């Protein structure tokens, strides 16, 4: 395994954030987050570039998982770290698949894939008339691994579950997630439109506002 790279110039608690490691190797998330944080003068580095392995997501809440991922990346790199945890919460299913969205079908004995998750969700919702759902995202930013005051932000993107897929963009549950206000599924939206209005975008704007307040 490659050695984890420590980065010089890590911000100590209280100092301005210039360089932040993103506790994810998802290229799409890096692009989305880098664009918004770049405007605030923050350079974002993917943890994979520093040879940081993916952290476990063992917790029952989004915020605990996001914090664990951020602390893991900060501990290994010596840099401030940003992590997100997200999922789809369906009203008629008591908030499921929720924090287990990525492994929804797998936890029921199926495979770990978007197709299996969507099939499992559709069968859970068969005959259900309450189709309300939202995507939820929690962001956690720690200035260092033991930061006692992590910045936490969250975003909800409300919609309704379809019973047949629409659109080819996006990922995960997007073809089944309908936005009445836009008259489109998330997978029918231009990616730039999704990235500007999604749960992640809402949470990131909240985080940026908190950072600006702090500065
Ligand atoms: P993670 O936060 O990247 O671990 O995402 C958790 C899971 O939630 C994903 O694997 C998807 O199943 C679901 N999810 C989170 N955000 C989205 C989204 O924007 N579109 C579709 N599915 C999503």
Automatic annotation (TrEMBL):
InterPro entries: dITP/XTP_pyrophosphatase (IPR020922), ITPase-like_fam (IPR029001), RdgB/HAM1 (IPR002637). Binds 1 Mg(2+) ion per subunit. It comes from the Bacteria. Mg(2+) binds at residues 56, 85. Its EC number is 3.6.1.66. This is dITP/XTP pyrophosphatase. GO terms for cellular component: cytosol. Belongs to the HAM1 NTPase family. Homodimer. The keyword Ribonucleoprotein does not apply.
């Amino acid at each position: 395994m490659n050695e984890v790279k420590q980065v010089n110039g890590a911000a100590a608690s209280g100092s301005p954030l210039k360089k932040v490691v993103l506790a994810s190797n998802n290229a799409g998330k890096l692009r989305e987050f880098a664009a918004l944080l770049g405007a605030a003068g923050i350079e974002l580095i993917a943890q994979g570039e520093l040879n940081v392995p993916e952290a476990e997501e063992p917790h029952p809440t989004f915020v605990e998982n996001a914090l664990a991922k951020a602390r893991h990346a900060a501990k290994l790199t010596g840099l401030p770290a940003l992590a997100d945890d997200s999922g789809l919460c369906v009203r008629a299913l008591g908030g499921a698949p929720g924090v287990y969205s990525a492994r929804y079908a797998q936890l029921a004995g199926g495979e770990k894939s978007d197709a299996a998750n969507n099939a499992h969700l559709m069968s859970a919702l068969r005959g259900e008339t309450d189709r309300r759902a939202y995507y939820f995202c929690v962001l956690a930013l720690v200035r260092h691994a033991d930061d006692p005051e992590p910045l936490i932000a969250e975003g909800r993107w409300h919609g309704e579950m379809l019973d047949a897929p629409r659109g080819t963009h996006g990922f995960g549950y997007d073809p089944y997630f309908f936005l009445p206000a836009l008259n489109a599924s998330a997978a029918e939206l231009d990616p730039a439109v999704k990235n500007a209005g999604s749960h992640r975008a809402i949470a990131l704007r909240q985080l940026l506002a908190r950072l600006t307040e702090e500065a």
